[in-house]
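G., the chain you wanted modeled:
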Amino acid sequence: MDLNFIDADKLQATWAYLLQLAVHQGLNVLAALAILLVGWWLSGRARNAVLHAFDRPHVDATLRPMLGSVTQWVVRVVTVILVLSQFGVQTASIIAMLGAAGLAIGLALQGTLQNIAAGIMLVLLRPFRVGQYIDAQGIAGTVRETGLFMTELTTFDGVCLRVPNNKIWGSAITNYSENPTRRLDIEVTVPFGADVQTALGVLRRMLADDKRVHEVPAAEAMVVNFTSEGVTLNVRCWTSNDDYWNLRFAFYERIKRELQAVGIDIAVPVQELRVPGNGEQGAVVLNHTPHASPHAAPHSSPPSAIGTPRRA
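Predicted structure as tokens:
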């Protein structure tokens, strides 16, 4: 093959240019990698610094994770811009490119952007704070952290629950820890033949004896309903949020014991089913006692009669 048409000087100049370009771009790549690694490291350090700076009693703990995440991502965006500038990409071009891609990214990441916006609103309006127990239409738990994209909760059985911010922001939020006190209501049904005034007196003494019951508003014991099983009584009092569940469980135990001490049993639900028998109308009494007192109520059937036909 005749290679006389190739100019040796031009070939040498081209080779020198390519070698210089490769060295230059190689250095740019190394510098870009160094900037990227240092920037990513600095973003984590900046996040930790913000969290440490706002770790003070007068700063809301809900605000800290959000500020840390925002700081971290700002440093990372600046890092990416510096990396692109190493390859000759102008800042104006980067901004124009981001603007052009913003619409497509926004459409593709609608849910993610909604979570960011919802997270900002949750931090600004503060419907709840870290350590409070909330229920957002079935999503319940103690708040651990409100981040840029999701909120972390701890359920009552110790499970970590991560929920997108938009799902919480779009729900009705019930905050059980916001107020320092809560009202406690417990209903108990006694048979129709029981002395209601005696039962109310026992319940009122029980309320007065417990120091966890607040004096204001005053505790009450009252008749609230008549059911097919008997007379429904209501125990109502106010207590602190910290004592609510302990007091509720204690009253469940004491109500049964105190009523039985004066000869009053908790009503037992009875269902009567009438069926024809031997040409006459008979009745089968079915006694349903899933949560009843072990002592039979005065109006209930004895255990030996359960499932035994009775003549009408």
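Confidence is low (pLDDT under 50) at residues 289-312.

Shout if anything looks off.
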